[in-house]
Amino acid sequence: MTKKKLFLILLILGTAFWGISFSVVKLVVGNFSASTFLFYRFLIATFVLSIIFFNRFKVTDWPSIKIGMGLSLPLMFGIWLQTLGIKYTAASQCAFVAGMCVVIVPVLKIVMYKTFAPLKIWIAALIAITGLFVISVRQNLSIGIGDIYVLTGAVGFAVYLIKVEQYSKSRNLVATIVPMFATCTLITGCFALTDAHANWMPDSDIFWIGVAYCALFSTAYMYTISNLSQRYLSAEKVALIYLFEPIFGAIAAFFVLSEVLTWQLFAGGLMIFIATLISEINIYQFARKKNTINIP
User: Fold this and answer.
1) Given a cut of 50, is residue 141 above it in pLDDT?
2) How far apart are CA 131 and CA 123, in angstroms?
3) What is the pLDDT of residue 142?
4) According to the model, what pLDDT value does residue 236 have?
5) Would you list the DSSP string of 24-86?
6) For residues 131 and 268, what is the distance between their CA atoms, to the nearest angstrom?
7) pLDDT, tens digit, for every residue of 257-275?
8) Is 296 a member of any domain?
9) 284 belongs to a structural domain
10) In terms of CB atoms within 10 Å, which end of the chain has fewer, N or C?
11) How far is CA 166 from CA 25, 160, 171, 229, in A?
12) What is the DSSP string of the chain?
């Protein structure tokens, strides 16, 4: 098996871990402090990754530390708001709203780099916003606070992905992973110290199982595989693979939390799914390949 195919499989497995994590986090933050949960999540992830990448970690240079610290800010922003959002909205709904990140990326690139956006981006953005409206807006035309948190967090994830793409062109980002999560640990530790509801040693198996799952699979595994895979897979293919996340998230929420999958979730989620496909597929190149005739 080639490395390209191997990372393709590992990424799809990772999106399953991510999708399931929405239900896991929902179980935890519904009863315990989000700040202590995130602190332990990042602390364990940092410790495990320090061991796995020990040879690179012990020779980490200052530029790698600075890049890691810089990447931690939008990542921490996204994860923190997403965790808060899950507390106030359904896990399945949260998974689809978080999927807006892939559509937000090209739109943010227009703002940050003044690049010209093709028509498909604007079409995708319009469809995605309509899908978000279908999922999130209530009968009185109000939007839930949880959806606002998750959507705002998706902007943080989008900035993080753009920065990763920018830095990966000039250097191997493996050396930045441990400093990045170590900084996230420090930030969440500070939040926990100022949190009046923080419980540092909850007497609950659910809390610690949730911490272990998210630290090992949703954080250490997935972010490492995601960064390494970009050496073998294009950013477009990686983004398309991420489409599996809300699907796994909805399935997990149905079985783990017994959430009802409403017509609004199906309809709006399908629109966001289609919008993400439109934003990532090179329609011209696809059509050209279809029209090409191979002559033996």
Assistant:
1) yes
2) 12
3) 58
4) 55
5) HHHHHHTTS-HHHHHHHHHHHHHHHHHHHTHHHHTT--HHHHHHHHHHHHHHHHHHHHHHHHH
6) 4
7) 888 777 777 887 788 778 7
8) no
9) yes
10) C
11) 30, 10, 10, 15
12) --HHHHHHHHHHHHHHHHHHHHHHHHHHHTTS-HHHHHHHHHHHHHHHHHHHTHHHHTT--HHHHHHHHHHHHHHHHHHHHHHHHHHHS-HHHHHHHHTTHHHHHHHHHHHHH-PPPPHHHHHHHHHHHHHHHHHHB-TTS-B-HHHHHHHHHHHHHHHHHHHHHHHHTTS-THHHHHHHHHHHHHHHHHHHHT-TT--SS---HHHHHHHHHIIIIIIIIHHHHHHHHTTTS-HHHHHHHTTHHHHHHHHHHHHHS-----HHHHHHHHHHHHHHHHHHS-HHHHHHHHT-----
- Higher-confidence residue of 136 and 293: namely 136
Greater model confidence, 296 or 140: 140
Q: Given this model, what pLDDT does residue 295 score?
A: 44
Residues contacting residue 169 through CB under 8 Å, at least 6 positions apart: none
User: 284: which 2 tokens?
Assistant: 């011209």
Split into its structural domains, the chain has a count of 1
Q: Residue 120 falls within a domain, yes or no?
A: yes
Residue 71 lies in domain:
3-290
